[in-house]
Amino acid sequence: MKFQGDRTVALLILLPSLILVGVFVYGFIGQTVYVSLTDWGQGAALAENPEMNLIGLKNYGELFSGFLNSRFRQDLVNAVFYTVFLVSGALGIGLILAILLDRGPKGESVFRTIFLYPMSLSFIVTGTIWRWLLAPRGGINKLPEMVGLPGIGFRWLNSRQSVLNFNWQDLPQITAIVVAVIFFYIVFQQWTKGRKKKGLLSLIPAGALLLWAFWGAKFTPEILPVPESHGFNLATIGVIITAIWQYSGYTMALYLAGLRGISEDLREAARLDGANQFQYYLNVAIPILKPMTMSAIIILAHISLKMFALIFAMTGPDNAQTSHPAVLMYLTTFRANNFAKGAAIAVVLFAMVAVFIVPYLISAYRERRA
Amino acid sequence: MLKRLDWGKIVVYTSLTLFALIYLMPIYMTLITALKHPVNISLATAWQPPRDINWGSFAEAYGKLGPNFMNSLYLAVSATVISAILGSLNGYVFSKWKFPGNEIVFTLVLFGMFIPYQIILIPLFRVLRQLNLYGGIPGLALAHIVYGIPITSLIFRNFYARIPDSMIESAQMDGAGFFGIYRRIVLPLSVPGFVVVVIWQFTQIWNEFLWGITLTRHSANPITVGLAQLAGGQAVSWNLPMAGSLLAAFPVLIIYILMGRYFIRGLLAGSVKG
Description:
Shape of chain A: globular
Radius of gyration of chain B: 23 Å
Largest sheet of chain B: none
Oligomer: heterodimer
CATH superfamily of chain B: MetI-like
CATH topology of chain B: MetI-like fold
CATH architecture of chain B: Orthogonal Bundle
Distance between the termini of chain B: 45 Å
Largest interface: A-B, 102 and 94 residues
Largest sheet of chain A: 2 strands, antiparallel
Mean pLDDT of chain B: 89
Low-confidence stretches of chain B: none
Radius of gyration of chain A: 25 Å
Low-confidence stretches of chain A: none
Number of helices of chain B: 11
Structural class of chain A: mainly alpha
CATH architecture of the domain at 81-161 and 234-323 and 346-369 in chain A: Orthogonal Bundle
CATH class of chain B: Mainly Alpha
Number of helices of chain A: 16
């Protein structure tokens, strides 16, 4: 090989970066997992060589079923709601904006700039600004008064109301029922594809889960000694609106790139088939946008699952109503110096993000190989 | 027919204008509040423009946030330059010097840009302390450079993939080596790639908060941390945080308005499969 020497140089150039990523990403993840299995944080946590003993999964056990850790459980519920609402809100508004801009109206680039500028701002900047806009007796709440309507009295960021409440003790049963529903869906799919035997096989775990959820659960110990209510805290709505305001421009840009990629021929064909604008978007364009939707879901879910700065700026880290595991991780680790439990929270967050990211990266890898 | 067409246009332009107003409303509120005298700020008159303009809040905000602003500037400029050079070289290897396992290694590198940084924060904190880099700007810059490797390599790799391999091969035939090809062919074609990466990294680093608050001492706090502290107190008069917000937003907004096209490319690069 004539260029063997150059190949070696190429690898040597890449090597430092690979080592850095290897240590700072994979090595550090491993270390955080290890720390989460210790009791680091008892006594002199900040000493040069802090005392650390392996204690197994105790930190995780405490987080999910410890009496003192109910804030973590509410934060987890908050994170799920933040994710659901940010993803669906930004997707919906982004799609509407992209469709409005798709036909290239006059001033398109001005509108695009206006819709996208929030993306360039720091969460701290947007958070500070929206905290003022969402002040209980001013800002947004005063807007209806300008057209003669009564003002809104909602306490956006410090409401104590909560809806969709459930008892944390019921969580195993709720999970079992959800998983059973997924199994029933598999049965249904196999059945319609004609693979009846294979489909019926999935009825067994589904039935077992339901049986346990409705009957067997009475005989298994509760995960918490007392009932504990968690739900959707209405104080999070203000944060959700702000996050959607900041990120819908991003989904707009993504969808607009997708819409512009649709060939004029296809659009013309749809028109000749008698499809009006509405039908064109519903039946032709939106199905083509599916890869963009997938990308956007993954990026937005990843953003909302680690949301820290926005909540910090809007309500401060100590507001339990709007809190998030990412905020609690900061408080636990850097305020309370309880590094082990902070690490455990980080691992839970990481696992939730990995559920979205790993399949995404694998499918991207397969596409590149193909 | 003509009438129906007009209705469609009316709906499109009305909705676009309404959305534009919603998107601009926060910046309007920020601006008018920053320009008011503290005594004139009240919840009841929050939406009204200032009666007499007070530029003093900007000077006061800069007086408080000036050191943070400079910290962020040093941090963002130095880390962005190093990130871009590193990313360019990595992207060049990943796209033009493919080795066995190239794709899998690239995927493993990409993973680093999707992790929630909480998962590496504790070891990062420890390692920076051991290296005596905890608390200052160099340590923060190191973190930004290392965790910037995935996105910068991705952008450059996709950018260089468009340079035809035949160009590389003919340069090889002329006797050019790894660096010769980079200098003579790849680098001259890289300008738009560098613009995208520089804008992206600068904006990200300028806006970052989590590392700023956990890994720096007070004197090295970046602008986001300074602003959070300025706005965090309960008894603040709002002209100051609003002026501070504009100050913190100023560099990135200017970049975005002048070079929005490249900003969008960086934005889409992170989400369109490489």
